[in-house]
Amino acid sequence: MAEAVRRQEILAEQEKVAERQAALIDRQFDTQVRDPADAQRHAAEQEAEAKRVARVEQAEAERLAGIAAAQAEAERARLTGEGEKQWRSALAEAEAVEGLERGEAERARRAAIADVVRLEGEADAAVIGAKGAAEAEAMRKKADAFARYGDAAVLQMFVEVLPQVVAKASEPLSAVQKMTVISADGAGRISRAVADNVAQGLELLGSTPGVDLAELLMGITQRTATAAEPGDAPAQMNGKVEITG
C-alpha cells in the first residue's frame, strides 16, 4: 500500500514537471518566436505603407506637373494663334498623360498592397510553423514522462478513467425519455450500443498517448498469472474478484 502511494506521488510530481515544462516552452515561444515575428511583421507593414504613400505622392506630383505643363502649352498655342487644332491636340495629350500617370499610381498602390499581404503571409507561416514545433516538443516530453510511469501506474490510471468512459458512453441513452426499439434483438441492442461506445472510447483513449491499452492489460495479466503459484485463485469478496499484488 505504501509503495502504491509512493508511486502515485511520483506520478503526480512527474505530471507537475511535465506541465511546468510545457508552460516554460510556451513562454519561450512567446519570447523567442511570436513577439519577434509580430514586431517584424509590424515593421514590414510600416515600411510597405511608407513606400506606398511615397509612391502615390510622387505619382500625384508628377501627374499635376504634367497637367500644368500640358495646359500651359495648350494655352500658349491658343494665345499665339497657332490654331484651334493645335490647342485641342495639346489638351488631348495632357489628358493622355494624366490617364497614364493615374494608371502608374494605381499600379504602384496595388504593388504596395501585394507586398504587405505577402509579408503578412510569410510572418504568419513562420509563427504557425514555430507553434507547431513547440507543441510537438511538448507532446514528446509528455509522452516520455508517460512512458516512465510503469505498468502499475498506467493500470491505475486506466481503472480511474474507465468509469468516466462508461458514463460518457451511456449519456446519450440517459437523456432519452422514451425509446421504441424495433429489432429482433430486443432490448439487448441497447446494451450492445453502450458496449460499442465504450470500446470506441477505449480505442480513442489508447491512441491519444500512443499506448495500446489492450496489449498493456494483457501483458500485466500474463505477468500476474506467471507470478502466482499453481492452484492459487484470486480472492473473492461479495461476488467480486480482487487481485492482490
Helix and strand topology:
Blueprint: H1 2-79, H2 84-147, H3 151-174, H4 188-207, H5 213-227, E1 235-237, E2 240-242
Antiparallel strand pairs: 1-2
Helix pairs in contact: 1-2, 3-4, 3-5
Domain Flotillin C-terminal: 118-192
GO molecular function, one term: protease binding
InterPro entries: Flotillin_C (IPR031905), Flotillin_fam (IPR027705)
Helices, by number, come to 5
Query: How many strands, which pairing sense, and closed or not: the largest β-sheet?
Result: 2 strands, antiparallel
Low-pLDDT sequence parts: 232-245
Helix content: over 70%
**Order of strands, widest sheet:** 1-2
Structural class: mainly alpha
Q: Sum up the overall morphology in one term.
A: elongated
Helix and strand element order: HHHHHEE
Average pLDDT level = 70
Q: Count the E strands.
A: 2
Domain module tally: 2
How far apart are the first and last residues' alpha carbons, in Å?
10 Å
Radius of gyration: 38 Å
Region (Disordered): 28-50
GO biological process, one term: protein localization to plasma membrane
Pfam family, one: Flot
Protein name: Flotillin C-terminal domain-containing protein
Structure description:
This protein is mainly α and 245 residues long. The protein folds into 2 domains: 7-147; 151-232, no CATH class. The protein is built from 5 helices and 2 strands. The protein has helices at residues 2-79, 84-147, 151-174, 188-207, 213-227, and strands spanning 235-237, 240-242. The chain has a two-stranded antiparallel sheet. A hairpin with a 2-residue loop joins β1 and β2 (240-242). InterPro entries: Flotillin_C, Flotillin_fam. Residues 28-50 are annotated as: Disordered. GO terms for molecular function: protease binding. Residues 118-192 form the Flotillin C-terminal domain.
